[in-house]
Amino acid sequence: MGIFLAPDASVRRVLDRFDVRGAPLVVGVSGGVDSVCLLHILADLADVYRLRLHVVHVHHGIRGEDADADAAFVREMAAKLGLPFILRHVDIPTAAQQPGVSVEEAARQWRYAILGQEAERVHAPWVAVAHNADDQVETVLMHVIRGAGLAGLRGMRPLTWYGYLRLPLVPPQARPRSERLWLLRPLLWARRPDIETWVEERHLPYRFDLSNLDTTYFRNRLRHQVLPLLEEMNPQVRAALYATGELAAADFDLLHPLSVAAWAETLVEETPRGLRFSLARWRSHPLAHRRAILRDAVMYLRRELRDIGFAHVERAREFLENPAIPAGSEYTLPAGLTLRKEYETFWVGEGDEVEYPAYPLISGRIDIPTTGVYPLGEGWHLRVTHRAREEVGEVWRHNPDPWTAYFDADRLHWPLHLRPREEGERMEPLGMPGKQVLVSEIMINAKIPRWVRDRWPLLVDAAGTVHWIVGVRQAHTSRITPDTRRVLILRVERSP
Fold it and tell me: I need a surface site. Which of 57, 59, 71, 235 has the fewest CB within 10 A?
């Protein structure tokens, strides 16, 4: 059996493989030979598959009277087949006025959006379009020329979830929102010459768009100039490129679940403004997964992007892997995103999500042998003072500042130090005498972000007792009592 199929066999393969039956189906029909072929095959099979077809034609506001004639032609064809017809207009010349946007791309995105809108309106789970095997060959070659991984080398797929279509030129309110909407390409195994033969043998009229000959369009240059040249070198180049897409698709289907699992293992936190990943777990993954996590993070956060270039991913990867680049350093990603390297994590998202100076974090032990001022780093310091009990008064009872703590100086074993938490560490919280609570549990209840808990400072004395989770909770054992004579005051402040 060859790679390519007859048009009707290709359509049946797709309908059977994805169990397309017993529901409405929107068919995008331009009036060209491919869409005429698709519509008539679907109409022939509608009873067998219990399909309720809806014909949709999108008028792009280009080509003047020719476009009007296309719309009239499709309307008449739908009427002869006894099928409902929907005509939608969109002003593509205006949509394509944005910098760097081609008419071809604007038309593609709006066409998908409108077809999806109509599918939602008639409660259809599927939209069918007439891309064929030659379109697939051109798409694979286009991705080879531009550079792509497995996801790009797959080209188009016979079934694509609508949510994966990136339509940044279409306003969000105009994009389809259904979670159960799929794009079908039933002719993807059929060659264009076979489609033309199928239509001509049945004496079916169709429209020809002269813009398909315009080699100012990139795809048309591939079709009319590049591929014929390649065929001189290899007469089977179309089959070879098509096979490349199929092989890449199979490899992608094998490897993608592994990348998804790597993402799940590595993701630490998701907020409305970005994603945080474990740096150690990310570094432990194979190169392919490290690249995939970075690329997918950008694509996840910026659905208006159609792709992120290999160079951006590589520079981001090298940034995170370079031990000479300190924590707190940032690299600018596309679409206004920031990659921030942190001590044990890295952040992909809006640049102002978390400023590390917002928390007085530490990475190791800081000794406090006596009173004085101790720098904590990243714009913070600790001020330690002694006061007689009578000098302090009752301010400690109603302390409004979480970064200031008052202790009975004689209940602490000197010297003191600050350090991050240790595994399984406990403390006796103020007001809970005799009850030892996990430090991690107190942090969770205080909603300390997960990604900073391992760098959050604890005040510990020489006996190893935790007396203060800084800014969060003091210990009961060192509380001020009526018997207190000397008060130790610790204040964590931003450095000027």
Answer: 235
The CA-atom distances, in angstroms, between 481 and each of 220, 327, 395, 399, 475 are: 85, 42, 13, 15, 13
Structural tokens at position 218: 């990139």
- Tell me which fold the domain 7-233 belongs to: Rossmann fold (3.40.50)
Largest CA distance in the chain: 105
Tell which phi-psi region holds residue 372, choosing left (phi > 0), alpha (psi between -120 and 50) or beta. left
Written as one letter, the residue type at 146 is R
What's the pLDDT at 351? 67
What's residue 495's pLDDT? 67
Q: What is the CATH number of domain 366-494?
A: 3.50.40.10
Domains 7-233 and 258-354 share a fold: no
Look up the pTM and report it. Answer: 0.68
Contact residues for 182 (Cβ-Cβ < 8 A; gap 6+): 18, 125, 126, 127, 159, 160, 161, 162
pLDDT tens digit string along 325-380? 887 788 999 888 999 998 789 999 986 544 444 678 888 999 999 999 999 877 78
**Domain 258-354 belongs in CATH node 3.30.465.60:** yes
**Cβ-count burial of 241 within 10 angstroms (0-12 exposed, 13-18 middle, 19+ buried)?**
buried
Kindly tell me if the per-residue pLDDT of 451 is higher than 90.
Answer: no
Highest mean pLDDT (candidates 125-139, 353-367, 432-446): 125-139
Q: Calculate Rg over the CA atoms of the chain.
A: 32
